[in-house]
Amino acid sequence: MERTPNASKFQSSPYSLSPLSLSSQRLLRSPHKATRKISRIPFKVLDAPELQDDFYLNLVDWSVQNVLSVGLGSCVYLWSACTSQVTRLCDLSADGNVVTSVAWSERGHLVAVGTHHGYVTVWDVAVNKQVNKLQGHSARVGALAWNGDVLSSGSRDRLILQRDTRTPPTVTERRLVGHRQEVCGLKWSPDNQYLASGGNDNRLYVWNMQSLSPVQTYTDHLAAVKAIAWSPHHHGLLASGGGTADRCIRFWNTLTGQPMQSVDTGSQVCNLAWSKHSSELVSTHGYSQNQILVWKYPSLTQVAKLTGHSYRVLYLALSPDGEAIVTGAGDETLRFWNVFSKARSQKETRSVLSLYTGIR
């Protein structure tokens, strides 16, 4: 339909039969933005022998320096995403111990290793040397979270400990008491002011830097809360996911303490991570579908569903550029997916059959 010379920006032509304003007509005629295509096959698959099928552990993390740390049995391995070089960082078998969590520091120069025996070691990866050993937990440490030089650790002993990893420490140990069962999720907010913790007691707590008691308590989940993720886009927005008896992803406004949206995913929620660049998030799942889902927020429409793992997808980490994720499962594989990328990676066009590579 042609515009008449005197049609203003806000008025339809007096001769138009359309009930729509000109601006609406222009919007309808404009080219549609293409729906982003997410490849349903991983662009890389790594062998990960002895990767444990244990919901309460956190055995995979990806550093800002583009290195993956993975706990396999009694060892921690480092895999460089740039060179594909594999390094064995440590072996706890002489101590009869098993790795139960790994976490990179914010600068990516240190990696913390939680263990079945309850102590946590800190390693300088530039020289592959242990620089600290933190005692204090009486049971396995399944969750770790860094805040600068301070490391928070969550354990089956129900405690969260916060310790300064510098020696000598400049901050005394803080003991956060609240959970009544194993602590299995720990995440600091983007501004490093609040720590969210999830436990096998179905509780989600939020802690601040001053109090030794939680400043917020959320009790809506009906199963263990391992999956926790703070939005990098909406200040104070926290997402959490519940285990097999719950299956829900729930969103919380921690500024007001109010619950927001929730969605029943139909299966155990193992992990959550937000996109760094857009208002989307990815969830990984266990019983019964072992799937990976990408969601738009706040509409909670599903953008993609990825399958391939034959065991529950217990481990998830986001690449430093925010475009890819790595997932791990008890099927002893790590799978790399481009879920948030703006353009299709050239690597994806290679045959998936040629990408099976061992991590050790």
Explain what this protein looks like in three dimensions.
Belongs to the WD repeat CDC20/Fizzy family. InterPro entries: Cdc20/Fizzy, WD40/YVTN_repeat-like_dom_sf, WD40_CDC20-Fz, WD40_repeat_CS, WD40_repeat_dom_sf, WD40_rpt. It holds the Pfam family WD40_CDC20-Fz. It comes from Tenebrio molitor. Keywords: Cell cycle, Cell division, Mitosis, Repeat, WD repeat. With 360 residues, this protein is mainly β. Helix content is 2%, strand content 43%. It is built from 1 helix and 29 strands. A 5-stranded mixed β-sheet has the order 26-27-28-1-29, with no helix packed on it. Strands 2-3-4-5 form a 4-stranded antiparallel β-sheet, with no helix packed on it. A hairpin with a 2-residue loop joins strand 10 and strand 11. It is globular and about 85 Å long. It starts with 21 loop residues before the first helix and ends with a strand.
Question: Summary?
Answer:
The chain is 2% helix and 43% strand.
SSE blueprint:
Elements (H helix, E strand, L loop, with lengths): L21 H8 L14 E4 L12 E3 L4 E6 L2 E6 L5 E6 L7 E6 L5 E6 L4 E5 L4 E6 L6 E7 L2 E6 L3 E6 L9 E4 L5 E6 L6 E5 L4 E4 L8 E3 L6 E6 L6 E6 L5 E6 L4 E7 L4 E6 L5 E6 L6 E5 L5 E5 L8 E4 L5 E6 L3 E6 L17 E3 L2
Parallel strand pairs: 1-29
Antiparallel strand pairs: 1-28, 2-3, 3-4, 4-5, 6-7, 7-8, 8-9, 10-11, 11-12, 12-13, 14-15, 15-16, 16-17, 18-19, 19-20, 20-21, 22-23, 23-24, 24-25, 26-27, 27-28
